């Protein structure tokens, strides 16, 4: 199931008096001796319910806290170093919960990262999955380790996930003394691409896959992101469009032109593809010289929202979706190179650490596409997932595709999480109940194990802060249907509309 808008320390005991320990599980954990070829045991730890897990392997560039959230049950943590070649290897972790439903769950990653997804490890154990993660064969958020090392690049492209799944299943059998019954995957962004790519190359690895915002057509995606810096220029450029202008003037105009197309103005654009945004509406005139854009700035805005193409008109990648400009401010519209694209061209495509991202052209994009290391392309944010789905529809019927694939566009969600819409659908660290209606992982489990394929997915919007409360909910439609307001068109806040005020058409 794919959805979108798809690792030698001494034995340690880290537990507190927050709960009564299960001594039999603790003993079983601390006596566990993993038996995996080409692997070195780095640690085996027991953690009691309510405790937090120190993360000594988390690279500083990965960000996040130095420890996990409080565990929801007792967990046995196992870490391995697994050799994948003479000059490469992966850091692998498996977290085994005391309460186990004989399901295993693998997790993905994001960007060029070699950062274990500890939030998903904790989330998986909360739902009684034996859960695995790897560092994709390198540490930290940089792509520098790809430089002149095809084996590390191979790990990143697909090998680390597959090896992690194979090893994780073996360890689960060794630890629990029984075979797992079902195998699942949960990943977003690069993790979404990993899930879909794994299904193509290793179809026996998983029974069900959740692939959020998959980074499909990866070479062209990276090239598209590289194209932004030459378009926007640096912050010192006389025509630079400042972040405050993108989040204020431009975003307000996007909402004015696009928000009402779904039947209501509520600050959430349900179907960005329906909007033909006219940036010329922001052009300064003799009678309007403030809160407007120069002709050169209008041209920049138009290029940002336009498809990225070769000189002959061949599409490289779709343009930025209207409504996502606020999310894009920090990395794509900030007047600086997109770091992942810079690293990819320096250390993989051009093999030149001095390559200047300001000089990026479509020649670089063509070279990246021709190189396509380890078929990392997968296929030529929700914009591109629809292209992939339409490609599948051109090869098969809707009925046949529906037997194994469901695609949901989540309106008002930024990249994988956050945003003004009902974006919470059961991602890692979710506070939602584990039930199919509103939890995407539970939905794929229900589909695999009970044959109930989801027709819709209910999203939730929570308030910020420690005392988070539900602000509103909205059902997200199965593609190609789209959400439309079911009442008279009017200006409302999302909190004033009911789930049933919307229908999929």
TrEMBL record:
InterPro entries: AB_hydrolase_fold, Tannase/feruloyl_esterase. Its EC number is 3.1.1.-. It comes from the Eukaryota. GO terms for biological process: xylan catabolic process. One of its GO terms (molecular function) is metal ion binding. Keywords: Calcium, Carbohydrate metabolism, Disulfide bond, Hydrolase, Metal-binding, Polysaccharide degradation, Serine esterase, Signal, Xylan degradation. It is an enzyme of class 3 (hydrolase). It catalyses: feruloyl-polysaccharide + H2O = ferulate + polysaccharide. It holds the Pfam family Tannase. The keyword ATP-binding does not apply. Belongs to the tannase family. This is Carboxylic ester hydrolase.
């Amino acid at each position: 199931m794919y959805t979108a808008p798809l690792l030698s320390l001494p034995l340690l005991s880290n537990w507190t008096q927050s709960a009564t320990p299960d001594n039999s599980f603790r003993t079983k954990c601390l006596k566990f001796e993993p038996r995996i070829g080409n692997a070195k045991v780095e640690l085996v730890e027991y953690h009691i319910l309510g405790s937090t897990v120190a993360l000594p392997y988390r690279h500083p560039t990965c960000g996040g806290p130095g420890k996990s959230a409080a565990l929801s049950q007792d967990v046995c943590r196992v870490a391995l170093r697994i050799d994948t070649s003479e000059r490469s290897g992966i850091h692998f972790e498996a977290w085994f919960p005391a309460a186990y439903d004989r399901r295993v769950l693998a997790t993905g990653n994001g960007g060029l990262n070699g950062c274990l997804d500890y939030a998903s490890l904790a989330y998986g154990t909360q739902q009684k999955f034996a859960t695995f993660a790897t560092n994709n064969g390198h540490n930290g958020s940089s792509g520098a380790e790809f430089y002149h090392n095809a084996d590390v690049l191979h790990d990143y492209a697909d090998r680390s996930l597959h090896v992690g799944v194979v090893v994780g299943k073996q360890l689960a059998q060794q630890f629990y003394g029984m075979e797992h019954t079902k195998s699942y995957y949960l990943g977003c962004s690069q993790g979404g691409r990993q899930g879909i790519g794994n299904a193509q190359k290793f179809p026996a690895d998983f029974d069900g896959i959740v692939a959020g915002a998959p980074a499909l057509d990866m070479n062209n995606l990276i090239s598209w992101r590289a194209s932004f810096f030459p378009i926007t220029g640096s912050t010192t450029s006389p025509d630079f469009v400042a972040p405050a202008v993108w989040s204020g003037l431009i975003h307000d105009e996007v909402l004015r032109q696009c928000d009402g197309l779904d039947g209501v103005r509520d600050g959430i654009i349900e179907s960005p593809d329906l909007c033909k945004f006219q940036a010329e509406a922001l052009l300064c005139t003799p009678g309007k010289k403030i809160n407007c854009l120069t002709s050169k700035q209008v041209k920049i805005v138009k290029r940002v929202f336009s498809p990225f193409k070769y000189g002959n008109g061949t599409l490289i990648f779709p343009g930025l979706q209207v409504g996502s400009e606020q999310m894009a401010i920090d990395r794509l519209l900030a007047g600086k190179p997109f770091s992942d694209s810079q690293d990819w061209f320096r250390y993989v495509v051009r093999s030149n650490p001095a390559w200047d991202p300001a000089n990026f052209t479509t020649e670089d994009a063509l070279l990246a596409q021709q190189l396509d290391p380890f078929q990392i392309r997968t296929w030529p944010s929700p914009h591109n997932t629809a292209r992939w789905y339409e490609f599948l529809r051109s090869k098969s019927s809707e009925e046949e595709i529906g037997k194994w694939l469901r695609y949901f566009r989540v309106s008002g969600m930024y990249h994988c999480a956050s945003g003004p819409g009902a974006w919470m659908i059961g991602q890692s660290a979710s506070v939602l109940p584990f039930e199919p209606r509103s939890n995407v992982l539970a939905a794929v489990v229900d589909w695999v194990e009970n044959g109930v394929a989801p027709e819709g997915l209910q999203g939730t919007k929570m308030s910020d802060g420690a005392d988070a409360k539900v602000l509103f909910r909205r059902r997200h439609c199965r593609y190609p249907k789209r959400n439309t307001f079911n009442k008279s068109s009017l200006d409302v806040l999302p909190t004033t509309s009911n789930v049933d005020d919307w229908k999929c058409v």
